[in-house]
Amino acid sequence: MSDKVLLVTGGSRGIGAATARLAARAGWAVAVNYTANSLAADEVVRAIRAGGGRAIAVQADVADEAQVLKMYEHIDAKLGRLTGLVNNAGVVDRAQRVEDMSVARWRRMFDINVIGAFLCAREAVRRMSTKHGGSGGAIVNLSSAAARLGAPNEYVDYAAAKSAIDAFTIGLAKEVAGDGIRVNAVRPGLIDTEIHASGGRPDRVEALKHQVPMQRGGTADEVAQTILWLLSDAASYTTMSLVEVSGAR
Ligand code: NAP
């Protein structure tokens, strides 16, 4: 059992995978959550173990309460009591105007991006809180620059879900500040991962990078570095922060 136990939701690819790898190097035992791509999750776990770190892969759809409860029981048994959570699992959808969107799309967008984060945070607080016999901890939520840009003509629903994550971060940070738990969010801008292909636009970073004042997309590792700092004791007085990682986008 380790005293630094971290769950990274959506840890199999992109920003989550970069965070899991970096966290393991910083001494965290890491639970790498995924929902569909077990091969990608296994590869992250294999790389961490090859570097001498501790990691397990855990399957769960973060929007499904029963699956999340089972995932946490598995982590309790295999790694010990959680002290860190990165609420990273998230999805976009095809670019559409609001007038063309379906209710099913909105439900999926909010179920995964918002309810999923609430569910995983609830279970984390139950384990971390000094009021529940825990030793405290840190939660980092993945918001997005979309929360302040609104993502018109692409995915206003995604932007609204990420705004909910901002409010969630502020409220939860205040609520658990006396329980030894810090809660922060990062707002990545245009980051080079497979999320853009899943929204039907694999070239999105290349096509939009001219809009970024730094004139380039960011890497998953650049976001992971900020997440790791927020998780660490170096950020011991930082809570309720929404940290931009967007090249000034
Ligand atoms: P990505 O490359 O598409 O990876 C998404 C990850 O989330 C995968 O590990 C995937 O698992 C997992 N996932 C998706 N739905 C899930 C569910 N229902 N339950 C559990 N896991 C689920 O995404 P990314 O670009 O790294 O994005 C990570 C986070 O950063 C997201 O919250 C995203 O909104 C946010 N963000 C990204 C950008 C960007 O430009 N990339 C910008 C701002 C914010 P499988 O491998 O099993 O599919």
UniProtKB/TrEMBL annotation:
Pfam families: adh_short_C2 (PF13561)
InterPro entries: KR_dom, NAD(P)-bd_dom_sf, Sc_DH/Rdtase_CS, SDR_fam
Record keywords, A-Z: Oxidoreductase
Residue intervals passing through the bilayer: none
Entry keyword annotation includes Transmembrane helix: no
Family according to the record: Belongs to the short-chain dehydrogenases/reductases (SDR) family.
UniProt protein name: SDR family oxidoreductase
Native source species: Ottowia flava
